[in-house]
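can u do me a favor
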């Protein structure tokens, strides 16, 4: 319930900020003079911006299972599965969150956590991770994912994405209207200049927004690493797990859940990487506290 209130409050705050910015720049009077109801456009931007992000969050567990083929386990499938479920349960109790669903999927070494609610999340590990790592290292990875859930990282990223979506949706249309009226001198309605400029602006603003989301994602990885160290009462298991990841092939996550994995080798420029370099994460864990 607190997260729903936070989502609504953030939505209203973004609308207020955009309204103030438009008023300060004098765009409200200009848009009104051109017969454009910018308040309706602002509301529509917030609805689409936050609505899409919130729906994605609510569907995140289902999307993750479908896209990775993850199978939920209860521990009765075998000794490895029993150990995974018991370890997640112990770590969840330590982190003071509800027991997440535990799942296993086929793929290279990786793991992820997702879900809209901290007391009913999903934690999944790949077969490659279980096979390549020791139990202590797997436990550290599970602690990392449990920390994501306990920290509310999925909701935080949804709020950030919703805010940026709203700005991108609204500003790209404002820029499109300005160019259409001033440059293309469309006198009535919206001309092709609006649609061309709006599409180009949305792409450019979207790229900038992706870089911001990636920056926040990298920050939360350090926090989840520290959370694992706290749950296991030592940074060494997480350091060992990260070192192991550096020596084996990792990845294998679809785009929908890539940001929620333990490691992400997407090949993109560092500006758009959702995870910091392993060396930086290890150094952060080794730094004196």
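np, heres the sequence
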């Amino acid at each position: 319930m607190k997260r729903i209130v936070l989502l609504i409050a953030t939505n209203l705050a973004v609308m207020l900020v955009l309204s103030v910015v438009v008023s300060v720049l004098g765009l409200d009077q200009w848009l009104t003079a051109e017969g454009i109801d910018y308040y309706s456009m602002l509301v529509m931007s917030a609805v689409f911006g936050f609505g899409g992000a919130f729906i994605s969050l609510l569907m995140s567990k289902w999307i993750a299972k479908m896209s990775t083929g993850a199978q939920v386990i209860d521990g009765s499938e075998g000794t490895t599965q029993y150990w995974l479920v018991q370890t997640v349960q112990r770590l969840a109790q330590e982190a003071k969150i509800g027991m997440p669903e535990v799942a296993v999927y086929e793929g290279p070494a990786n793991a992820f956590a997702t879900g809209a609610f901290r007391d009913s999340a999903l934690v999944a590990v790949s077969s490659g991770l279980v096979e390549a790592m020791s139990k202590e290292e797997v436990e550290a990875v599970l602690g990392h994912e449990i920390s994501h859930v306990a920290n509310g990282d999925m909701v935080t990223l949804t709020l950030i994405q919703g805010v940026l979506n709203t700005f991108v949706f609204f500003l790209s249309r404002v820029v499109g209207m300005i160019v259409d009226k001033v440059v293309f001198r469309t006198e009535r309605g919206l001309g092709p200049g609006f649609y061309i400029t709006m599409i180009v602006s949305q792409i450019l603003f979207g790229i900038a927004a992706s870089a911001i989301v990636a920056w926040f994602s990298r920050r939360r990885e350090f926090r989840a690493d520290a959370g694992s160290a706290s749950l296991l009462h030592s940074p060494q298991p997480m350091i060992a797990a990260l070192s192991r990841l550096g020596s084996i092939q990792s990845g294998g996550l679809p785009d929908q859940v890539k940001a929620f994995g333990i490691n992400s080798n997407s090949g993109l420029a560092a500006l758009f990487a959702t995870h910091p370099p392993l060396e930086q994460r290890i150094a952060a864990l080794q730094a004196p506290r």
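The chain has one domain: 1-67+144-289. hope that helps!!
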